[in-house]
Design a protein that fits this description.
heterodimer, A: 114 residues, mainly beta, Immunoglobulin-like, four-stranded antiparallel sheet, B: 111 residues, six-stranded mixed sheet, five-stranded antiparallel sheet, 11 strands, 56% strand
Chain lengths: 114, 111
């Protein structure tokens, strides 16, 4: 059982470049999330989705976009990368709303913008 | 802005010692979760507490939810090197369904 799979694991971008972080889950979870984790700062919610075709902004959405065309996939798009987007990005999924059920996380994608 | 404060931020102790880490807020939570994260991995759920005063045990780990549902603690008895990791608490406010995360406690258990 793969759970939540993220790709790539590591990426270096130049300022102004764009890229997509891929996330797929095989647990048929309705809820999916993108977080970023900076040292000493905990997890910050970027975007989330409660089902296919439905997305909403989290705490720090600026500079990012998402789509949810299927239950399984929830890609995160970075447009015009900036050094402030250097971080570790985690995709997560859950069966129901946050706090009621466990969040399952991917292994993370470490992004460096130079 | 809702804050969940974790303390201490960093703790390094010898194998066999006991320790307690704390998660505090000024707001009331409908539930609170504790996760452990190892280097290069995503967080993994340890426990969910939902009732004020609730105590849950997971082997040598004891979790407590405050009576007022504003704080929680994690106590580890006879810590082992395998307990090393980043411990994160996350709470859901009564008024919405977003998880609020603490910054974490980095725990190192030395053999």
């Amino acid at each position: 059982n793969a759970g939540v799979t993220q790709t790539p694991k590591f990426r270096i971008l130049k300022i102004g470049q764009s890229m997509t972080l891929q996330c797929t889950q095989d647990m048929n979870h309705n809820y999916m999330y993108w977080y970023r984790q900076d040292p000493g700062m905990g997890l910050k919610l970027i975007y989330y989705s409660v089902g296919a075709g439905i997305t909403d902004k989290g705490e720090v959405p600026n500079g990012y976009n998402v789509s949810r065309s299927t239950t399984e996939d929830f890609p995160l798009r970075l447009e015009l990368a900036a050094p402030s987007q250097t971080s570790v990005y985690f995709c997560a999924s859950s069966y129901s709303r946050p706090g009621a059920k466990e969040l399952f996380f991917g292994e993370g994608s470490r992004l460096t913008v130079l | 802005t809702q804050l969940l404060e974790q303390s201490p931020q960093f703790l390094s102790i010898q194998e066999g010692e006991n320790l307690t880490v704390y998660c505090n807020s000024s707001s009331v939570f409908s539930s609170l979760q504790w996760y452990r994260q190892e280097p290069g991995e995503g967080p993994v759920l340890l426990v969910t507490v939902v009732t004020g005063g609730e105590v849950k045990k997971l082997k040598r780990l004891t979790f407590q939810f405050g009576d007022a549902r504003k704080d929680s603690s994690l106590h580890i008895t006879a810590a082992q090197p395998g307990d090393t990791g980043l411990y994160l608490c996350a709470g859901v406010e009564d008024s919405n369904y977003q998880l609020i995360w603490g910054a974490g406690t980095k725990l190192i258990i030395k053999p």
